Amino acid sequence: MTSNAATPFPVGLTTLHWGEADAHPRALLLHGLTSAGGTWWQVASALAAGGWSVTAPDLRGHGGSPRTLRYRLADYAADVLALDPPARSTVTASTSTSAAGRPWDLVVGHSLGGAVATVAAQAHQDWTRALLLLDPVLSMPDDQHDAVIADLLGDLDHLDADDLLRANPRWHTEDAVQKVTAARVVSPFVVERTVRDNVGWNLEPVAARIRSHVRVLGADPQLGASFTAAEGDRLSAASPDSFSFAVVEGAGHSIHRDDPDRVVAEARALIAP
């Protein structure tokens, strides 16, 4: 059974939270394919310790969130757009009220999460004040789909915490444990549909239409970057007032694991007064 309906429908996502619910700034962290909200533990903990309210969902098909028949980027985006930031309480001498949820102060997206954040932010320009995208997958040529699926499924079959730490010496032990735990509950169906349901995966024009500030941190090209310098140059030219890009030398695709301090510093800088 398959679904060809064009209209995206949201599912209720399992979410994790760090910090006081009514704290400010408020950040939403979106993980990559075969990952989960808990993999943000270092960045989320550091931001919460600095007074932030941080929310990290499991995307559809991941962690404890619902499984569906369809995994288009528009569907992923519908899910996260349905998540409002925790309301900030406003107390006066006579009354106590809750402020409206939107917008998020910052949305951080890694890999697939960066693509989802891009689609959501362009569809609803008031969704977030700023975006921080970590080596986002903004393009995936259709003729590469088979190879991408094979690579991802191969990783799922052989994922081991000790092997991950040997391959990624900058990772904390907990990063490897969280990654393995998250990957074990992601099915081959979710991986394949996330790729095949998105024919014509090209989000560069979408990113250029976002009015919020977009900051991209790219992985070191020598360590397998998904976001290229050419993409960064084109987006900088198309949106010089709202887009910026930097390469994190020595960091692989999982920048939040290789250099969480850099991610936290960039997050704070984006929403500084």
UniProtKB/TrEMBL annotation:
GO terms for cellular component: membrane. Gene3D superfamilies: alpha/beta hydrolase (3.40.50.1820). Pfam families: Abhydrolase_6 (PF12697). One of its GO terms (biological process) is acylglycerol catabolic process. This is Alpha/beta hydrolase family protein. The keyword Hydrolase applies. GO terms for molecular function: monoacylglycerol lipase activity. Keywords: Hydrolase. Coiled coil: none annotated. InterPro entries: AB_hydrolase_1 (IPR000073), AB_hydrolase_fold (IPR029058), AB_hydrolase_sf (IPR050266), Epox_hydrolase-like (IPR000639). Residues 28-265 form the AB hydrolase-1 domain. Transmembrane segments: none annotated. It comes from Herbiconiux ginsengi.
